[in-house]
Amino acid sequence: MACCVLQITGLIFGGVGMVGTLAATAMPQWRVSAYVEGNIVVFETIWEGLWMDCISQLGIRLQCKFYDSVLALPPPLEAFRALMCLAVGLSILSFLMAIVGVKYTQHSKEGAQAVSIFILAAGVAFLLTGTLVLIPVSWTGGSIVRDFYDPAVPVPLKRELGAALFVGWASTALLLAAGAMYC
User: Fold this and answer.
1) CA 94 to CA 132: how far, in whole Å?
2) Strand duo 61-66 + 159-161: pairing
3) Does the N terminus or the C terminus of the chain have fewer Cβ atoms within 10 A?
């Protein structure tokens, strides 16, 4: 019975982590404009994401523009896009493997070896997915903090951590927890 509860909890964590991975990949709030040097009146908020930039004017009007060319993007952004897309695909695959493993664990008493291999594969896939999400999210967070405290970076170019990074870190924690439960 405890095994079934652990598998269902891992399935819930993995499912929420999968949705969080999808959300973090799609959200434009990876980098958010910073308000520094006592500038109280701010008319625009700038969001920078993996796929687009958005500008919010007075919180009323929001304009988003997809990046024009893939070739014009900086190499880290291209790599982060690839890692996050790979993580989305792998999270869906690992979630489906976990569903199949949990379903056959509950209905099959013979062939436990095949079912345990399915559960183990789902656990390893969840752990790999969590690692794939952690790399671009943490790298982006580290570069934002480094640039924020760098005096050589002009004030209008300083950015803060966006909501997508926090969603990415939370989904990483859930995916790693689900992978640990299944392993």
Assistant:
1) 13
2) unpaired
3) N
Rounded CA-CA distance 99/121 in Å is: 12
Query: Would you say 54 and 64 are in contact if contact means Cβ atoms under 8 Å apart?
Result: yes
- pLDDT, averaged across the chain: 87
19, pLDDT greater than 60: yes
CATH number, domain 1-27+74-182: 1.20.140.150
Q: Which of 104, 134, 118, 120 is nearest to 180 (CA)?
A: 120
- One-letter amino acid for residue 115 of the chain: V
Instruction: Establish how many alpha carbons lie within 13 A of residue 65's alpha carbon, considering only the half-sphere containing its beta carbon.
Output: 6
Cα-based distances in Å from 42 to 37, 95, 156: 12, 43, 12
pLDDT of residue 127: 96
* Helix ranges restricted to H, the chain: 2-26, 75-107, 112-148, 163-182
- Residue 52: DSSP 8-state: E
DSSP at 30: S
129 contact partners, CB below 8 Å, separation of at least 6? 17, 18, 21, 87, 90, 91, 94, 175, 179
Residue 162 tokens read as 């966006």
Question: Which residue is associated with the tokens 């345990």?
Answer: 116
DSSP 31: E
- The enclosing H or E element of 33 equals strand 31-33
> Quick check: pTM over 0.90?
no
